[in-house]
Amino acid sequence: MIYYGADYYPEHWPEDRWAQDARLMQQAGFNVVRLAEFAWSQMEPAPGRYDFAWLDRAIDVLAAHGIRVVLGTPTASPPPWLMHNRPELFLVREDNSRATYGGRREYCPTHPLYRTHARQIAQAMAEHYHANPNVIGWQIDNEFGDRCYCENCRAAFQDWLRARYRTLDVLNRCWGTVFWSHEYTAWEQIPVPLANAVISNPGLDLDYRRFISATYVSLQQEQIAILRQRCPDQFITHNFMGFKYDKLDYFDLAEPLDLVTWDNYPRGFWSNEAAPPALLALSHATMRGLKRQNFWVMESQSGITGWQTMGAAPRPGEIRLWAYQAIAHGADGIVFFRWRTARFGAEQFWHGILDHDGQPRRRYAEVAALGSELQRIAAALEATETRTEVAMLLSYDSRFAFQIQPNNPDFDYATHLYDYYAALHRQHIAVDIVGPHADLSGYRMLIVPALYILPDNLAEKLEAFVEGGGTVVLTTRSGVKDFHNTVVDRPLPGLLSTLCGATVDEYDSLYQGSSIPIQAAGNSGITGAATVWCDILVPETAEVLATYGSDFYMGRPAITLNRYGKGRAFYVGTVGDRRLVDSVVRYVLSALNIRPPLKAPEDVEIALRWQADQPLIFALNHSSDTREVALEQPYVDLITDQPVGPVLTLPPKGVAILAPGETRS
Ligand code: GAL
Known about the structure:
Blueprint: E1 3-7, H1 18-27, E2 32-35, H2 40-43, H3 53-63, E3 68-72, H4 80-83, H5 112-129, E4 135-139, H6 151-165, H7 168-175, H8 202-230, E5 235-240, H9 250-254, E6 259-264, H10 277-291, E7 295-301, H11 318-328, E8 331-337, H12 362-381, E9 390-393, H13 396-404, H14 413-426, E10 432-434, E11 445-448, H15 456-467, E12 471-475, H16 497-500, E13 502-509, E14 515-520, E15 528-531, E16 533-539, E17 543-548, E18 557-564, E19 567-572, H17 578-592, E20 604-611, E21 614-621, E22 627-630, E23 635-637, E24 642-644, E25 647-650, E26 655-660
Parallel strand pairs: 1-2, 1-8, 2-3, 3-4, 4-5, 5-6, 6-7, 7-8, 9-10, 9-11, 11-12, 12-19
Antiparallel strand pairs: 13-16, 14-15, 14-17, 17-18, 18-19, 20-21, 21-26, 22-25, 23-24, 23-26
Helix pairs in contact: 5-8, 6-8, 8-13, 10-14, 14-17
The structure holds beta-D-galactopyranose.
Beta-D-galactopyranose is lined by residues 142-143, 239, 263, 299, 337, 347, 350.
C-alpha cells in the first residue's frame, strides 16, 4: 500500500467546509492526512483544559471518506499561556541573543517546565486517541532542531559531561585544556561555545554539538515513552529535514522511531531552479539509510513556496516526478504540504494543492491523476525495497567537527559527500547512505568522505570490511582527529595509514578557487584537478594512481590504491573537481565490475525497487525535453500497462516503471 495524502489544518477553515475537503481528497485517491502538529492552543486552550471535540469531528469527517490520520504532537509551537512572561523558556542563539515569542521552535529544549507541558499534551492526546481506529500513527513535534546556548542548557551540558567523563582530570586531558590555561577545577566553570567566546576549544565545541543532539533525542524519547505505553498499535515517526539538515545526529534521532519521514521542498523558496535531482536523491537515500528501511515523505511540495516573497510554481509534471522519485528511492508514503493555502499566519504564501480560495485547479488535477495511478500500481510495489552493493558513510561527528573548523574556507563536508554521491548518480548506481554503526556486510564498495573524527573502533571496522573483501574509498582529511576532536600524534591518515598503505608526508591548503592538475599514473585514466586541499602522499605498500601536475609537489602521489586482505583501499588526497571525482568513481566501479541497470542519459534517473529477485526499474526524466532510453530486453511499463521497447521514450518530466517481461505478471 502506498500512503497518499496531505497535511491538513481543519482548524484553519470553517467546519462546514470540511466535508467538501474530504470529498475532494477522496477523489484524489487520498488515504491519509497529517493533522494537529501545530494545534496546541486549540487542543489545550488553557493549562490542563483539553478540547479534542473539534479534532474528533474532523477525524470523523475524514474517516467517512476512507481517510486515516497521523496525529502530530504540537510541541514545536508552545502557546502564549505557557511562554508569556517566562523568558527562561526561550532558546538562546549562538550569538547570545534570546528568541522571543511570535514564531515557532523558540523553546529551550532542556527547560523542565517546557518539557513537563510537552509531556502533558502528548499524554492527553495519547489518552484520547489510543483506541481510535482512524489514527494510525504519530508524528512527534515538527522538524526538531536549533541549538540553544542558555544557562539552563549550560547546566545540563555540565551534567552530561560529568556522566560521560566522570572526572575533570579525564575531561581536561581529552580536551587539552592546558592550552590557554583552560583547566577546569569545577564542573560549573565549563562554558557553552557562544560565538562571542572568540574561539572555542574544539573538544568542548564538538561535545556541545553532540550534547544538543542528544538533548533532542531525549526530548523526543519522553514523548515516545508515553506513546509506546498508551498507543502500542500506532506507529511513531518524526519529520526529518533530509540530507542538508546538519545540527542533529539523525541516526540517533531515528533509532527509536518506527518510521522515518521527511519534508521535501525541491524548489525551496530561494530560487527558481529546482534542487538538482541528485541532491533530492541523496536526501531520499539518507532518510532511507537512517533506519535502513523504507520511509515516507511527510511534506512534499505541492505549490509555490515562500514566506515574505515567493518562489516559482512547480512546473507541470513536477509534483508527480518528485513523488515517483521518492517512491523509487523507497518512499511508501507521499503526503503533500499542504492541502489548502492558509489565508492567515506566517505561511500565507506557502502554497498547497488548493489555493486560498479552495478551488481545485491544475495542481489538484495533477495530484488526483497521480492518486489514481498510485492505486493501480500499489500492489506491484507491495513489499519492495531498494538494494545496492554501494554505500557511503555519513558521519555526523565529522560533520559537526568541520562546522567548527572547516580546515579550508572552501571545504564543506556535505558538498564533498554530495560530489561523490552525484558522481554515482550520474552513473545510475544506487547508493545507500549509512552511519558509523551500520552493518557493512552486503556492500562491496564503500565511499567514506573525509572521515575527520575517527574513533578506534571505526578504524577497526573499516579495516575488517576491506580485509574481508570490501573496497573502501577514503578521501582527504580522514583520520585527522580522535573522538575528542584532538589531532592524532601519528602520520595521517592516522589509524587508517596501514589500511591505505600510504601516509601523508605534507599537505597544502589551496587558496580560494585555485587548483592543481592531476595526472594519471600508469594507465589509471584518473584525471581532473585537485582543489581545496592536497595531501602529498608517500606510498608504502600502495600503488600510485595519480600524481600532482604542478607546484612544489609536482610528480608526487595524490591518489593511491592499496590491496589489503581480500579487498582494496583507495585514498584520494584531495577534494577535486567534478572531472576528478567522476574519473575516480568510474575507475572504482569498473575495477569492481559494478554496472548500472540501464544505459540512460545523465538527466534520466534510474532507480530500482526489488521484490525478491524481481526488479522494478524507475526511469525518471528530470529534463524539460523528451529523452530516450535503449532497452536490451522487453519490459512492461506498470503505469501504462503497455509493453515498451526497444526504445523507451520519456516525455519531459516523464516517468516509467519497468517490469521485465512481455506482459505484466
Ligand atoms: C516545513 C514545516 C511546515 C511548514 C513548511 C513550509 O519545514 O515542517 O510546518 O512550515 O516547512 O514552511
